[in-house]
């Protein structure tokens, strides 16, 4: 487990700093939110489910600690710098991630995505944009296991 400040340091040091500095929020700050609550619900064994969920709901974005429930592998945050949208995957696992807010039918009305690139890597990232979501493949080899940042071209209208 890592603290918020260590996560922030990793994000700054392993990516281009304009993902954080000089960036601004997108129209929504994230997607697949409260994934930690879904994970808690899946992993309850011989425990008082109500008490566990109550404790998980007390946590919020600004009060995370090493004892907090980990983010789900599909929870993301967004920043914008210029015409680029940056998708920060908070707890990545290899495989496909779906981001509903970047689908053509989303209320945020993203543009047609022309490319997706993982910062800190030269790997090609497979992606497809549909009415329902943007699907991206997260590779096994990543710059860090703690967070991954994708630079998305075309989503900003």
Question: Could you describe the 3D structure shown?
Answer:
By secondary structure, the chain is of the alpha+beta class. It has 3 helices and 8 strands. It has helices at residues 4-14, 35-42, 49-58, and strands at 24-31, 76-81, 84-89, 95-99, 115-118, 127-129, 134-138, 148-153. The strands form 2 sheets. It has a 5-stranded antiparallel sheet, with no helix packed on it. The chain has a 3-stranded antiparallel sheet with strand order 4-7-6, with no helix packed on it. Helix 2 (35-42) packs antiparallel against helix 3. It is globular, with a radius of gyration of 16 Å. It starts with a helix and ends with a strand. 25% of the residues are buried. The model has no long low-confidence stretch (mean pLDDT 78).
Q: Which tags fit this structure?
A:
157 residues; alpha+beta; 5-stranded antiparallel beta sheet; 3-stranded antiparallel beta sheet; 18% helix
Write a concise synopsis of the structure shown:
18% of the residues lie in helices and 27% in strands.
Write the layout of secondary structure elements.
Layout: H1 4-14, E1 24-31, H2 35-42, H3 49-58, E2 76-81, E3 84-89, E4 95-99, E5 115-118, E6 127-129, E7 134-138, E8 148-153
Antiparallel strand pairs: 1-2, 2-3, 3-8, 4-7, 5-8, 6-7
